[in-house]
Specification:
Blueprint: E1 5-8, H1 12-23, E2 30-33, H2 67-70, E3 73-76, E4 81-85, E5 90-93, E6 98-100, E7 103-106, E8 110-112, E9 125-126, H3 131-143, E10 146-150, H4 154-165, E11 169-173, H5 181-184, H6 186-198, E12 202-204, E13 209-215, E14 218-224, E15 229-231, E16 234-237, E17 241-243, H7 246-250, E18 259-261, E19 272-274, E20 279-283, E21 288-291, H8 295-309, E22 321-326, E23 329-335, E24 344-350, E25 355-362, E26 365-372, H9 378-387, H10 393-397
Parallel strand pairs: 1-2, 1-7, 2-3, 7-19, 9-16, 10-11, 10-16, 11-12, 18-20
Antiparallel strand pairs: 4-5, 5-6, 8-17, 13-14, 14-15, 20-21, 22-23, 23-26, 24-25, 25-26
This protein binds flavin-adenine dinucleotide.
Residues 8-14, 33-36, 43-44, 46-47, 80-81, 107-110, 128-129, 155, 244, 247, 276-277, 293-296, 298, 322-324 line the site of flavin-adenine dinucleotide.
């Protein structure tokens, strides 16, 4: 049989790529290979509704179980690809089998980062990436009283919110002076610090960790550099994720903070593409490469990758988009700002009541926007960023001025 298209990584990006290929009329052999035992699912619920046990796993799946057979997608779950030979157009699977491909899409996602810290191997130190991780954490909420979270990033903060709602005491240890400081800057990071403190989270900011305290084989606390010991019954390590680039790097593809790809998501090998969390892709709007670990990128890049695989000229040029839910705060963020890469943040609406839009400005232009408990504004914010026009600060602040008239 002639070699077909192969997708490695059966997460959101991999599943959406299979869907896009079939929608676009590719009718050749199509194989989707993933290490996990589950069919492709979306991860955001794992730290929100699914973790809180208010949303069933069924709602997180990308497609119904029968979709793959119906669309002649050969889904191989619990299968890991261990090596890639771009010259021979071949893949080796962990069991030793080999598979040829005509075009290959890498969508291998990310894995939780770790820290060089003693005690992290205790069985009640968790990370959160998979359904199994979320199940373990949810089960632990039923039996523990105090959760210690290392890292005040999105996942640490979302889990803290769910844990508090389950009645668990939460302490978050963060090296920076505010949660989410690198991604949001101090103006907005403070909003999240207040939100969590109001809900009873003990935020230890600017804290240096020395070790996980382990007694009788289990983690019982965190020791800080100043000698303080914070007691807990379980630890969540949530210090970000790193792209799974080993296959690509070992195969000699160009890799630098992800697999380097052009705007069409084609790597340094014309028959190998990459999308989703692992793709460090040239973004025409920014005239540079960016790598985005966001759900929306894994959702939308695959259609472009599919076009490129089919030999069309295609380009991915969406603005990065992210959302989060914590307690009764829902937010969306659109745009891209390097840490410190803005002049000021302008607020429109009720900041104290957490119902506002924040705009990041650089040289008088809006470069990012975040709506908090305000909805249906991403289109005008997107248009504003894309227009690159200078905005009047007073009008930007004034909720009476429609966004599309700025
Ligand atoms: C708990 C959690 C909450 C999140 N919440 C949000 C949110 O609220 N908003 C937001 O915008 N983003 C959120 N994200 C990020 C978002 O889920 C990711 O950006 C998205 O999952 C990326 O999709 P992907 O398909 O590129 O990678 P992944 O979802 O990581 O899927 C990659 C798959 O490839 C498999 N794989 C890796 N290597 C191999 C191999 N060699 N062989 C076979 N298979 C392999 C992996 O096992 C995995 O199943 C969250 C992430 C997590 C973990």
């Amino acid at each position: 049989m002639e070699d077909g298209f192969v997708i490695v990584g059966a997460g959101l990006a991999g599943a959406k790529a299979a869907e896009a290929l079939r929608q676009q009329g590719y009718d050749g052999r199509l194989t989707l290979i993933g290490s996990e035992q589950y069919r492709p699912y979306e991860r955001p619920p794992l730290s929100k509704g699914y973790l809180a046990r208010s949303q069933p796993l069924e709602k997180a799946y990308v497609h119904p179980a029968e979709w793959y057979a119906e669309h002649e997608v050969e889904l191989r779950t619990a299968t890991t690809v261990s090596a890639l030979d771009p010259a021979g157009h071949r893949l080796r699977l962990a069991g030793g089998d080999e598979l040829g491909y005509r075009k290959l899409l890498l969508a291998t996602g990310s894995s939780p980062r770790s820290l060089p810290l003693a005690g992290l191997d205790a069985p009640n130190v968790y990370t959160l990436r998979t359904v199994a991780d979320s199940d373990t954490l949810a089960e632990s909420f039923a039996s523990i009283r105090r959760l210690l979270v290392i890292g005040a990033g999105w996942i640490g903060m979302e889990v803290a919110a769910v844990a508090r709602q389950a009645g668990t005491e939460v302490t978050i240890v963060e090296a920076a002076e505010l949660p989410l400081l690198r991604v949001l800057g101090p103006e907005l990071a403070g909003v999240f610090a207040e939100l969590h403190r109001e809900h009873g989270v003990d935020l230890r900011l600017g804290a240096q960790l020395r070790e996980v305290v382990v007694e009788a084989g289990r983690a019982t606390g965190l020791r800080l550099a100043d000698g303080t010991v914070l007691d807990g019954d379980a630890v969540l390590l949530a210090v970000g994720a790193a792209p799974n680039v080993e296959l690509a790097a070992d195969a000699g593809l160009a890799v630098d903070n992800g697999v380097l790809v052009d705007a069409g998501l084609v790597s340094s090998d014309p028959d190998v593409l990459a999308c989703g969390d692992i793709a460090n892709a040239y973004a025409p709007f920014y005239d540079r490469r960016i790598r985005v670990e966001h759900w929306a990128t894994a959702l939308k890049q695959p259609a472009v990758a599919a076009r490129s695989m089919r030999g069309e000229t295609a380009s991915y040029d969406e603005l990065p988009y992210f959302y989060s839910d914590q307690y009764d705060l829902g937010m969306e963020y659109l745009g891209y700002v390097e840490p410190g890469g803005y002049d000021e943040v302008v607020f429109r609406g009720d900041r104290a009541g957490r119902e506002f839009i924040a705009f990041w400005l650089s040289g008088g232009q809006v470069i990012a926007g975040m709506n908090v408990n305000v909805w249906d504004v991403t289109d005008p914010i997107k248009a504003l960023i894309r227009s690159r026009r200078s905005v009047d600060r007073a009008r930007l602040e004034d909720p009476a001025v429609p966004l599309d008239e700025l």
